Please model this.
Amino acid sequence: MRVLLGVFVMISALPTFTPALACTVGFPRSYSVFKSADILMRAKVANYEVIPARSEAVFSLDVVEMLSGGGKDIKRLVARWQNSTYGEPEAWLGPKEVIVGLRIVSKPSGGPMLEIVQQDCGPISILEDTPNNLALVQNERR
Model:
C-alpha cells in the first residue's frame, strides 16, 4: 500500500502542460509592457491572419504616426502577435485604429522580425487609438 501511495505522489507531482490554460488567473491591464517596445506607433489594422500551427497571428499595420523608434517614411509594418492565453481569435474583432508597441526579436530561422508586445496573462495589449490610451502609454514610457 505504501508503495502505491508513493507512486501516486510521484506521478501527481509531475508537471502537466496545458498551453490553453497557461494563464489561469488574468491580471489587470498594465501599461508597463510598452516600456519593452522598440517602436511605438498609431496604426490602422490592414490585415489579420491566424497561424494555428504556431499559435500566433500576423498583423499588417498601416502606419498613422510613428511615436518612437520608427522611421518617418515607413507606411506599413507586419508583426507577429501571440496572445498570452495562446488563443488567438479567428478574426480580429478589436479596434481598427490602434496603438501598438513592437519589439525587434530574432526569428527561429535567424534574422529580425517584429513582435507586438503583450502583457503576460493580461488583457490584449493592442489598444484602441484614443487620447486617453495614448496618454497612459506615453506616461508609462517616461
Summary: Confidence is low (pLDDT under 50) at residues 1-21. The two ends are 62 Å apart (CA to CA).
